[in-house]
């Protein structure tokens, strides 16, 4: 990879850890939103209520996504459960070249690819206080069958083992406190970098 001026912050964690909520709230913070830019990930999953193409995700068909993989369109991509997710490479490089910093919210496999390509990327691993709380959060969503829930919990156990590859571990017991911790980390990292 070529030299960039901005830095990449990678936020990962199992389903139900609250990473998407924390990612969104962190980017709403006045001090942070001037320093971090959200990239728009591509996905093959169906839109959820209130989501818009180009704002929340780039919603692609599986055929479009697979064609983009062949063309080298993605900085990183992974199949997560039954859907594909990826970070468009050109979008990320354009942001970094302007000196802005990026906050990616991606799974642990995609994070490994980013960490390999960008040695100064800052890893932020989000976890729930316990596996039982994680299970309750997933059940509360009401979007999972019992079999799908069991599969997500099994994957969550494996993903938690990856926390050691991240610079920071944030236990999401309270969203407000977790956002404050993430904010302090980002500000300190940007001062140091």
Please tell me about this protein's structure.
The chain is 45% helix and 21% strand. The protein has 193 residues and is of the alpha/beta class. It has a single domain (8-192), classed as P-loop containing nucleotide triphosphate hydrolases (Rossmann fold), CATH 3.40.50. The strands form 2 sheets. It has a 5-stranded parallel sheet with strand order 2-7-1-8-9, sandwiched between helices. A 4-stranded mixed sheet has the order 4-3-6-5. Helix 1 (19-28) crosses helix 8 and helix 6 (131-141) packs antiparallel against helix 7. It is globular. The two termini are 18 Å apart.
Walk me through the topology.
Layout: E1 8-12, H1 19-28, H2 30-33, E2 36-38, E3 42-43, E4 58-59, H3 62-70, E5 74-80, E6 83-88, H4 89-97, E7 101-105, H5 108-117, E8 122-127, H6 131-141, H7 146-160, E9 168-171, H8 175-192
Parallel strand pairs: 1-7, 1-8, 2-7, 3-4, 8-9
Antiparallel strand pairs: 3-6, 5-6
| Order of adjacent strands in the largest pleated sheet | 2-7-1-8-9
Beta-strand residue fraction: 15-25%
State the end-to-end CA separation: 18 Å
* Average residue pLDDT: 92
Helix content: 40-55%
What would you say the CATH architecture is?
3-Layer(aba) Sandwich
Total domain units:
1
Task: Please outline the major beta sheet.
Answer: 5 strands, parallel
Instruction: Flag low-confidence runs.
Output: none
Radius of gyration: 16 Å
